[in-house]
Amino acid sequence: MLKRVHFPASALPYLLVAPQVAITLVFFIWPASQALWQSMLIEDAFGLSTEFVWFENFQALFEDDQYLGSFRRTAFFSLAVAFLSMSFSLVLAGFADRVIRGATTYRTLLIWPYAIAPVLAGALWVFMFNPTLGIVAYGLELLGYEWNHQLRGGQAMALVIMAASWKQVAYNFLFYLAAMQAIPRSVIEAAAIDGAGPIRRFRTIVFPLVSPTTFFLLVINLVYAFFDTFGIIHAVTQGGPANATTILVYKVYNDGFVGLDLGGSAAQSVILMVLVIALTVVQFRFIERKVEY
Amino acid sequence: MAGIVLDKLKKSYGGTEVLHGVNAEIADGEFVVIVGPSGCGKSTLLRMIAGLESVTEGEIRIGERVVNGLEPAQRDIAMVFQNYALYPHMSVRQNMAYGLKIRGLPKEEIDRRVEEAADILEIRDYLERKPRQLSGGQRQRVAMGRAIVRKPQVFLFDEPLSNLDAKLRVQMRLEIRRLQKRLGVTAVYVTHDQVEAMTLGDRLMVLNGGRSEQFGTPIELYERPQTTFVAGFIGSPAMNFLPATAEGGEVVLENGARLPGGTGAGRVRLGLRPEHLLADDGGPIRLQAILAEQLGASTLVHGTLEGTDSALVAALPGTRAVTEGEVLGFSVAPAQMHLFDGEGRRIG
User: Fold this and answer.
1) Where are the alpha helices (DSSP H) in chain A?
2) Sheet containing B278-279: order of strands
3) Does B283 touch chain A (CB under 8 A)?
4) S-S: B225 plus which of A244, B6, B146, B230, CB 3.0-4.6 Å?
5) Which fold would CATH assign to domain B4-232?
6) Cβ-nearest to A195 among B82, B83, B102
């Protein structure tokens, strides 16, 4: 045991931690407490008077069909994004893991989408799928399928899911590839000698062995779909048509900055905050213990 | 059951050739050990037989089939890896059943075979445990079990004992040998440990720098090593090599000592096994002692040939105190003198 005298009291540790504490205070604690305070206020449309109403805003939200609808949409959206991008990147990582020649090139190219800002990613997909100009929309029309996500809610949802998943594939890919490369070669070889073909090896050996990564990525992807997809939705659909792609985080913006219902918007962001805290707790609780296999 | 034939087997990585044409015929049911220092290509050779490495040139036949182009699964082999390569997410039972399940055997048959193998290996109590709950020796047994249940034509072992402690290694060595004899399956075993090689193999292939130096029974290799490499590699403690001159049925050492025996003429290297040096006060081989290692059953005397710098080791039975600088006399039977030419090849 080291004795206390080895560590004389000094201001240095506090000084070193101070920037991080300051950042957390300014960018998290302060706005979060502001939101909490604001969620209990009702303001008139002109900003002339405010009234403290306790939890009336929350109550109103849970009686609002539009809000509950947005909740369901968000759940669908985030699960779809997580599933799509994770399964896609799992397959890509599976292939990249087998590649011997040019492996670095593949990896580099697959990582690029992650460096693209969400709004730009959204813009890319908007152009490809624009009903009058988009190349993909044109191709679909040739095949006899009419694409118009500006009118059809289902198509709009599909489009933002695709765009959001595509952007996250790179991130998931990195983690899956690292996890696969951590599996001892000889285990895979033993399975090959046991008679398992590539697909069976992937299903019965590789996939179970990367399950801790899968769980970790599931949480990360849900958080991503909940929050970081704002830019994509804003660029692609603005939450439309007819709120078909208004997920919770977009509704916070829409109600607050467009609809000027500051109290209701703040209440929504408080709910989102609780959700992300819950997800983080789940992640810490389970990731630290690692998924048992 | 099947034998294995290796026909002028070559392997290159890029432009570098690591195996330079290895030939061998392994009989059905034979236990062959491939032994050599690290980097000699022995693991590569084994992995080529398994189908985990491609063949650059030459042919591998298992039974009557040429297997060069076959996937590992189609070769009807089982392999035990150095790190055991157990599937960490499966129980011992599932580990052993995996290959059988893939082959679509009925469940009762799988259970029967797994339990039979578990009985042979005495791992029945651990069948429901995960590999990480087992000790090294138990994991080793599971890896063996996984090989046995498949009833393959050939067992391949890639240094399976090198992760175990010395005592367990000796025990598992015997078990592997017993098991292979009992099942009568052809086995190829790779190791860098010459004691393991000597005790396990019906025949040994000594591999050096991608070439087979000698392929024969352990006793052949010990008694008539064909090269200085084999002579130095097989046997413990290692053989002594002394520069010498052969002339008229005698071998003349550097210090002028004359030993009767030997053929040929000119400069040679004389190989003498430490255990073949017989204490003989008037003997022609004079060893100036530096120190002695007491092993209990025998004493290893390290020193030099008197009057030279050539290192010389002798094994004396029992315990014997030796003082530094003491000169001991030895003689050797002519049949136990090994002469090698300048290229390290055996003469006579």
Assistant:
1) 12-24, 30-38, 56-62, 65-98, 103-111, 118-129, 135-142, 153-181, 185-193, 198-201, 207-209, 211-223, 230-236, 248-253, 262-289
2) B278-279, B327-331, B285-294, B298-305, B311-317
3) no
4) B230
5) Rossmann fold (3.40.50)
6) B102
Q: Which of A216, A254, A260, A243 is nearest to A160 (CA)?
A: A243
- The ranges assigned to domains in chain B are 4-232, 238-347
For residue A262, the enclosing domain spans 57-289
Surface of B (212-251) touching A: CB under 8 A: none
How distant is the Cα of A185 from the closest Cα of chain B, in angstroms? Answer: 8
Determine the Cα–Cα distance for residues B176 and B170; give it in Å rounded to an integer: 10
Is residue A2 assigned to a domain?
no
Tens of each residue's pLDDT in chain A, 293 residues? 555 556 667 888 899 999 999 999 999 889 888 888 888 877 776 767 777 778 878 887 888 888 888 889 999 999 999 999 999 999 988 888 877 677 788 878 888 888 888 888 888 888 888 888 888 888 888 888 888 878 888 888 988 899 899 888 889 998 998 899 889 889 999 999 988 888 899 999 999 999 888 988 998 899 888 888 888 888 888 887 888 888 888 888 888 888 777 888 888 888 888 988 888 888 787 766 555 44
The answer to whether the pTM exceeds 0.80 is: no
Min Cα–Cα distance to chain B from A180, Å = 14
Residue A46 lies in a domain: no
Return the CATH number at A215: 1.10.3720.10
**Number of folded domains that form chain A:** 1
